[in-house]
Amino acid sequence: MTRVPRSALVLGLAGLIPFVWGAATIALPRLADFGTETLGPRFAGIYVLNFYGAVILSFMSGVLWGFSTRAEGAKAGAGYALSVIPALWAFFMVGGGAESSIKALIAGYLGLLALDILFWAMRLAPRWWLALRLPLTAIVVASLAVALL
């Protein structure tokens, strides 16, 4: 693996803010009250984790789709087919209840990490990809897990 480009790292870390915020508003009731009063209930606690978690899981499907454009033939076809799994997972598995959705998102992000590893091993993702995705995924999963405690 090589060094993560600064812009990718900064934007990746910024993308964690809603996950960490959601976990913090679960762990700290006063912060949840503040968030609900100033931003609205959708932007605090389990609600922001579910909504943003589904959005980003779907976004990551697009990233994998983009990686698939680097391949040809059957390898490209496999990449395209695999790339839609996170978005379909979010669509079909998130929304059946707050806690079950969190569990589905955790499974979705762990599955996404498996796809990240596969795309990296197939040399479709940049060499630095796992150096970025491993810590980001760990923080996302830990943030989502706070909702289940």
TrEMBL record:
It comes from the Bacteria. The chain crosses the membrane at residues 46-67, 79-98, 104-121, 128-148. The keyword ATP-binding does not apply. Keywords: Membrane, Transmembrane, Transmembrane helix. The keyword Transmembrane applies. InterPro entries: DUF3429. This is DUF3429 domain-containing protein. It comes from Rhodovulum iodosum. The lineage of its organism: Bacteria, Pseudomonadati, Pseudomonadota, Alphaproteobacteria, Rhodobacterales.
